[in-house]
Amino acid sequence: STRLSEHQLIMGDTRAPLRRLLELIAKERRPEVVIVLGTCPVEVIYDDFEPVVLAVSQETGIPMIALRTHGLSLTTQIACQDWLYATLAGFEAPDAGIERKGVNLVGLPAGVAVEPTRILGELGIPVNGVYPNQKEFAHWRRIGLAERSFMVDRTTLPRLGAELEQHGQRVDEVPLPIGLYHTERFY
Length: 187
Prior knowledge:
By secondary structure, the chain is α/β, with parallel strands linked by helices. It contains 9 helices and 6 strands; from the N terminus they run ααβααβαβαβαβαβα. The protein has helices spanning about 5-10, 15-30, 40-45, 50-60, 75-90, 110-120, 135-140, 160-165, 180-185; strands at about 35-40, 65-70, 105, 125-130, 150, 170-175. It has a 4-stranded parallel beta sheet. The chain has a two-stranded parallel ribbon with strand order 1-2. The chain is elongated, with a radius of gyration of 20 Å. The protein starts with 5 loop residues before the first helix and ends with a helix.
């Protein structure tokens, strides 16, 4: 948190505290990625904080993303999640030149994903990842390395689906494999 004061907000003096905070985070923590969330006061003054985030990212070599997450526009939680997932999927894997293999499972709850992951593995089809259940940034950077993605209810994550297609993947919509009929259709 930049902990902007009322005076800083009124005067529009928001960039220096943000820059200082991002530089400290980069120096002290060296995170894999930084996501900067804008808030309502920053949006009220329409602070253009994205250029600061981009500049510090370029200077430090740490990926940094700016997201306007204020409550002043009507945006659903799933739309914000879709933006986040698509953004994370947009990062190239460090080993992007390797041969694509396996599949991604998208939209399966963690408990439901266990059986399909095991069965696909037994069939010789490696599961690259189960998304959005992957918590590590390194896993998200590898989402583009699968040959194909199977997505439950693609309409809820349209940006992520489009990003996967940008990676050259075929994205197939599948039902949630609960119950005999839907499980049979899933496989």
